[in-house]
Amino acid sequence: MIENPTSKRKAPSQQRAKSTVRKVLDGTWQLLKEQGADAITTRNIAKITGVSPGSIYQYFGNKEQILFTLYGERLKDSVGAFKLASTEENFSLSLAEFYQLLEQKLANVGWGRVEDVELTKAIAENPQLKHAVQPILNELYDCLIYVLRRYGSTWSEEDLKHLAEYIFGVNHFGYSLRIRQSEQSATKTIALTRELEYYLICKAVNKVSP
């Protein structure tokens, strides 16, 4: 039976153990960047980090638990960016001003690297992982829905969730495209992605039926 991706075998308590876990996670990022999602195996992670498979298995029952941890960290950073932006003071800004501020907060998270694309690919191709990360994705969608509500959207919860999922899908497509483009083309893709996202947000806020 495959162990649940959301669990860990052992939570590190000592600094040395925490360093080992971090080394495993950082090594997995390196593998994703240099060799892609298909290269993620416990053996390859052990090879690139110098951490023995036995030590890895003390903390992660399988590679899925490692990938889930990485993806969870990235999503939680994005949720944190939304929460930093979503203050009463910032909600007094116009929607355009708030969106610009939110974009700056999310840019600090740094989504869009080659390894992010490969990690997302690994998640999407594994049904167990897709199911496991859904609660964290829902939390991220809820952050955007909250913003839309604060700016007056009267869409149903179902329609807003679908919109939020679509907007984040557009964002993912944008950075998946950018990593294969020249710097000039990538800059245009960023601008077009942001323009489309803002258009969709305005559509919901301005009460246009979905």
Please describe the topology of this protein:
Blueprint: H1 15-34, H2 42-49, H3 53-59, H4 63-85, H5 95-109, H6 114-124, H7 127-150, H8 157-178, H9 183-205
Description:
Residues 18-78 form the HTH tetR-type domain. The protein has 210 residues and is mainly alpha-helical. The protein folds into two domains: 15-63, Arc Repressor Mutant, subunit A (Orthogonal Bundle); 69-205. It contains nine helices and no strands. The protein has helices at 15-34, 42-49, 53-59, 63-85, 95-109, 114-124, 127-150, 157-178, 183-205. α1 crosses α6 (114-124). The longest helix is centred in the middle third of the chain and has 24 residues, at 127-150. It is elongated. The N and C termini lie far apart (43 Å).
List keywords for this structure.
210 residues, mainly alpha, Arc Repressor Mutant, subunit A, 2 domains, elongated
